[in-house]
Design goal:
heterodimer, A: alpha+beta, Tick-borne Encephalitis virus Glycoprotein, domain 1, 2 domains, 4-stranded antiparallel beta sheet, 7 helices, 9 strands, B: mainly alpha, 0% strand, globular
């Protein structure tokens, strides 16, 4: 142990240390409050994270631990911890509040978040390492490792900036107020007028299709007309308007339609990461595994 | 086309696949391809018929996903055969496909035409088909792992085949997961909600990543790697149908259309 070259054992110890640190944090300051990461805190955290990764990368020749982090041997224990905690999350019922503390709110559990952060650091360092010894054949590796970092970091840090509101709109009565999960009323800066709600049913009465013909008036004076239905949201001024519900007792005769308004300023980065991962997976499929080396 | 005629198409396809498997042992390459591909065509004709008569892709119920699984096993089998010429692979894929066909014959699931609005999306077919193909490849990788563990030795080419099955299987697993995320954003406004099915998809994905990185870090420890493949496959099964029985997922998952 701790004899160079380090391999997996050292990684299991580092992971154990992170778990322990996480538990201490959990005891000391309680579960992570993601809502505190709203802009501009998430930007500051992002800059610090990127700076840390950059410094680790620059010091890789001086500090052996940083160099070791870039190898598969460091990735295995990290992935084992991450997989184990994720399996636990799948086995234990997850609740928003209360429940069994710690493990039943896994997303707010410090050890879980530290292990995933460790995974992002490792993956980013490995990607940088391959970027800086540039060759065309490194592209799949870079896409896979950078893609996962971009997608997960953007999704996690951007989460607190997502606005998700519900707006109930009666036919021919323009509405500009919407409520969030907590029931607080907001004015998202656009009004929706419902012209017509339509619904088709199957023979057994289950809904086949429901849609709303609407006009959207924005605070900056634009008017957008369109039809919103499930799987076909409408995009207006950075908001995506989703068909969410209707008066289920009245079915096709519903006099109102419920919309969900979602705004996610980080979505571009999440999509970028996802497309990098798709491209990376495409490469995996086409070029497959390199020939194994027996040791 | 309905499930009533399934037995005839299934019988025809399985007999053709069995003939293909037989010719693989006899090393009659042309007949291997002719029989296996003919069987695939017969089976696909049934899927296509179902698709037309249901007026929607047959992807909604468990029985319908098993249909695709039975279809993709021989497809994966013939691809592996054409690349590595394993004589046994087609026997295996035929047998496994036969098992799933039998499950469908005895427990076909529901026959409803209705497809709820959330599932009416261009993402629906690619999301599920890609997953089923991935499950078939990773199933083949699992059988390789069991075979190597029982035999207690592995040649380079056998390990290389296992690696490749996992690489391609994981690539398709990644497609399935990410197509799901893109679809979820269009349908619900969130690309990832840690729904129980999503949590298990993430766990499964991480387990296969453990395999790939372990193979790189310690190429000599193929036995540990094979054990990880078994664990990964258990996660995959929990993700596919096991969560329907998991207490933690009851009433919480939005992926439970097939339970109705």
């Amino acid at each position: 142990m701790w004899v160079k070259p380090w391999n997996m054992k050292e990684g299991f110890l580092v992971g154990g240390g992170l778990l322990f640190t996480g538990i201490l944090l959990q005891v000391a300051i309680g579960p992570i409050r993601w809502e505190l990461f709203a802009w501009p805190v998430n930007l500051i955290v992002l800059v610090l994270l990127l700076a840390a990764i950059g410094i680790m990368f620059l010091l890789r020749r001086k500090v052996y631990a940083f160099e070791w982090l870039m190898h598969a041997g460091a990735a295995v224990p990290c992935l084992v911890y991450a997989a184990t905690l994720t399996i636990l999350m799948g086995l234990l019922p997850q609740v928003r509040t209360g429940g069994m503390p710690w493990l039943s709110q896994m997303l707010r559990f410090w050890p879980f978040v530290l292990i995933w952060t460790w995974m992002m650091v490792i993956s980013a360092l490995a990607a940088l390492n391959h970027i800086f010894r540039w060759k065309v054949k490194e592209i799949p590796f870079i896409l896979n490792h950078m893609g996962v970092v971009v997608a997960i970091v953007a999704a996690t840090l951007g989460n607190a900036d997502i606005r998700s509101l519900q707006m109930t709109v009666f036919t021919d009565e323009p509405e500009w107020r919407a409520v969030d999960d907590a029931g607080t009323i907001h004015e998202p800066g656009l009004a929706i007028e419902l012209h017509r709600f339509t619904m088709e049913e199957y023979a057994d009465g289950t809904p086949k299709r429901f849609a709303s013909d609407i006009s959207v008036y924005t605070i900056d004076g634009k008017t957008v007309q369109g039809t919103v239905e499930v799987n076909k949201p409408l995009k207006v001024n950075g908001w995506k308007i989703y068909q969410y519900g209707y008066d289920v007792r009245m079915g096709p005769k519903s006099t109102y339609s419920v919309f969900q308004l979602v705004r996610d300023p980080w979505i571009f980065w999440v999509y970028l990461g996802i497309f990098m991962m798709i491209a990376g997976a495409l490469c995996l499929m086409l070029f497959m595994a390199p020939k194994p080396v027996r040791v | 086309m309905s499930w009533d005629s399934f037995i005839w198409f299934a019988l025809g396809a399985v007999l053709l696949w069995a003939a293909g498997a037989f010719f693989a042992w006899k090393e009659k390459k042309v007949w291997v391809y002719v029989c296996t591909l003919a069987g695939i065509a017969v089976f696909f004709a049934f899927i296509l018929g179902m698709w037309i008569s249901l007026e929607r892709p047959p992807l909604r119920t468990m029985g319908e996903t098993r249909l695709w699984y039975s279809f993709f096993l021989p497809v994966a089998g013939i691809i592996v055969y054409s690349r590595w010429r394993y004589k046994w692979i087609l026997s295996f894929s035929t047998l496994l496909s036969f098992v799933f066909i039998c499950v469908n014959l005895f427990k076909p699931g529901i026959h409803s035409k209705s497809l709820m609005p959330a599932l009416q999306s261009p993402w629906f077919a690619p999301h599920v088909i890609v997953y089923m193909f991935s499950y078939a490849l990773l199933g083949a990788a699992t059988i390789m792992a069991v075979y190597l563990l029982i035999r207690k030795r592995a040649s380079d080419s056998e390990i290389n085949l296992t690696d490749n099955l996992v690489y391609v299987g994981l690539a398709f697993l990644t497609f399935g997961m990410l197509f799901g995320a893109l679809w979820a954003k269009e349908a619900w406004g969130t690309y990832w909600a840690w729904d129980p099915k999503e949590t298990w998809a993430a766990a499964t994905w991480l387990c296969y990543l453990v395999y790939i990185h372990l193979r790189k870090a310690k190429p000599g420890e193929w036995q540990t790697a094979c054990v990880i493949l078994l664990v990964s496959f258990v996660c995959l099964q929990i993700c596919w149908w096991g969560i329907n029985y998991l207490p933690s997922a009851q009433g919480l998952s939005i992926h439970t259309y097939n339970l109705k």
